[in-house]
Design a protein that fits this description.
By secondary structure, the chain is of the alpha/beta class. Helices cover about 35% and strands about 25% of the residues. Helix 6 packs across helix 10. The structure holds NADP nicotinamide-adenine-dinucleotide phosphate.
Length: about 425
């Protein structure tokens, strides 16, 4: 690296790439004061050179190929802001690390699939691989886990890591509260119109984006290789306004949570909708905000909240990584040297245990509840509370149960028996309760 000058190449000039260029232009002098080096964007690459952009590229070299940028000998750091687990993004990061350059990326899909291999490559070349922006946008959770909490053994992480899902669930909750319940599909359409959801929303609403982020956090928190395949993933499509209404009545909020726990038996990583008590700090993280709660053995719980996406917050995280590189800080990407990351046994979801919310749509007839109770009793699932609001002999009526702690496997068998009862008109709706 040239003394006092960090020469940066950026591939990808969309939301995040543009944000990084604007942030560096706005705060160049401040950053130079803080890290004693000038961060200068010398080269860029994107798909379309002719595209109109709302920032200046005067004096900046344009590379038609991302491989050209990766190998540009006059660059110290390559910033990958293209996206995707394969193709141009992966080749760029591998090429740049191969050439001994530091790499900063916001690409959770790439890291979730290839993070450990990239970290190994970075170390073999004495280069940094940094990815603060890949998880929870502007919240410095990677740095917190890797550095600020490094003296602790971390036992659990709970996160709201997908702003699209959180926006949809918050808007559905608002509708219920206002007496104008809205279902998932209508709120999703609104989120798409507002730019909070992609035209193809499946990465977000089916939980995959959140799973990518959880797999990365798990690795940093527990010192194991990134293991996306082990994450149990469920999305939010099946959440209805009726369940949100019952959650409010019972003193809960529904959130898509990312949860990772590490114990003596191994690691359980899961992404699914949860009911969390309204007294929990995470219950009030609404809209596009993200939050993470970590449990450290000496520090106890720590709560982080902030904007999980968008031009400014994501650029803030990318530039923080660039500043660390300018300061010469080269901490192993996942907190431990890649060769020392230890794979831990995966605890299957069937071994999860916790309380559950169950909503059944039943025929309102004597004996129905007794049959349901028998199915639960046969699997040793004990009921904590039951709610039946309306009585109408001509229609299916909702019956809501909450259970004491039960194993997922037992509950699954009980729900299968309940579904077979002739008086139960829909498959049971189940939401796990997480007492945070
Ligand atoms: N947006 C966010 O809030 C956010 C938050 C956290 C993390 N991230 C991550 O940040 C990364 C970038 O996201 P973004 O929202 O900024 O994406 P974006 O707005 O879609 O921008 C993508 C950029 O990549 C360029 N590009 C696409 N394919 C390319 C190729 N084959 N070769 C060279 N350039 C290519 C595009 O070029 P053109 O401009 O010429 O089309 C565009 O400039 C992704 O990994 C994303 O997951 C985004």
């Amino acid at each position: 690296m040239t003394q006092h000058l960090v020469r940066i190449g950026i591939a990808g000039l969309g939301t995040v790439g543009g944000g990084v260029i604007k942030l560096l232009a706005a705060h160049g002098a401040l950053i130079e004061q803080r890290c004693g080096a000038r961060l200068r964007v010398d080269a860029v690459a994107a798909r379309d050179r002719a595209k109109a952009r709302d920032f200046s590229l005067d004096g900046v070299r344009w590379h038609d190929s991302t491989q050209g940028l990766a190998r540009d000998p006059a660059l110290d750091v390559v910033v990958e802001l293209i996206g995707g687990a394969e193709g141009a993004a992966r080749e760029l990061c591998q090429g740049a690390l191969d050439a001994g350059k530091h790499v900063v990326t916001a690409n959770k899909a790439l890291l979730a699939h290839h993070g450990t291999a990239l970290a190994r490559l970075a170390e073999s070349k004495g280069a940094s691989l940094r990815f603060e922006a890949a998880v929870a946008g502007g919240i410095p959770i990677i740095k917190a886990l890797r550095e600020g909490l490094a003296g602790n053994r971390i036992s659990a992480i709970h996160g709201i890591l997908n702003g699209t899902c959180n926006y949809i669930l918050s808007a559905m909750q608002e509708g219920v509260r206002a007496g104008k319940p809205r279902e998932f599909a209508s709120v999703l359409a609104e989120a798409q119109a507002l730019g909070y959801a992609e035209a193809d929303p499946s990465m977000d609403v089916d939980g995959h984006d959140a799973a990518h982020k959880l797999a990365i956090l798990t690795s940093v928190a527990f010192g194991c290789p990134v293991d996306l395949a082990s994450v149990h993933v469920e999305g939010i499509r099946q959440i209805s306004a009726m369940d949100i209404d019952y959650a409010l009545t019972l003193g809960y909020r529904i959130k898509l949570l990312c949860i990772s726990r590490c114990g003596t038996e191994g690691v359980l990583q899961r992404v699914h909708p949860c009911m969390v008590p309204e007294s929990s700090p995470i219950a009030h993280v609404d809209g596009v905000f993200n939050a993470v709660i970590t449990q450290g053995d000496f520090v106890g719980p720590s709560v982080f909240e902030g904007r999980g996406a968008g031009e400014g917050p994501t650029a803030s995280a990318v530039v923080a990584d660039l500043i660390d590189i300018a300061r010469g800080l080269n901490v192993p990407a996942f907190g431990l040297p890649a060769g020392q990351l230890v794979a831990r046994p995966t605890i299957p979801m069937a071994r999860h245990a916790g309380p559950y919310y169950i909503r059944l749509m039943v025929v309102d007839r004597p004996g129905v509840i007794a049959d349901v109770a028998a199915c639960l009793r046969d699997e040793q699932v004990s009921v904590e509370s039951m709610l039946q609001r309306s009585r109408n002999p001509d229609e299916a009526v909702p019956v809501v149960l909450t259970t004491h702690e039960a194993s997922e496997a037992s509950l699954g068998r009980a729900l299968a028996s309940i579904e077979r009862l002739g008086t139960v008109l829909e498959p049971p709706h189940m939401i796990r309760i997480e007492n945070l």
